[in-house]
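Example 3.2
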Amino acid sequence: QVHLVESGGGSVLPGGSLTLSCTVSESISTIYSMAWYRQAPGQRDRDLVADITNSGVAEYADSVQGRFTISRDNAKNTVFLQMNSLKREDTGVYLCNADDRYRGIDAWGQGTQVTVKG
């Protein structure tokens, strides 16, 4: 069973930056896709923020394009989300996801809170 642990959340002013980390219990080099989702306050749905395949192809939600960068360090089994120029609407719980349907992997972390206010 794959375990994911997120870290790096916090409270920042609009325009600030944060870097989130997601550490995975096994090698991520063979996991097809790693992604970050956001669950906004009061919402049940999780919205895709960014994902990256094991070949390094990244995709972003329109709302974060140009501000956020997703990356993966296979040697450290860690996925990062660099968030710049944060806006109040970026507030939410950010969850990491590992997805590899061929291996039956669909794992989630507990999430890390990001609050943009001020």
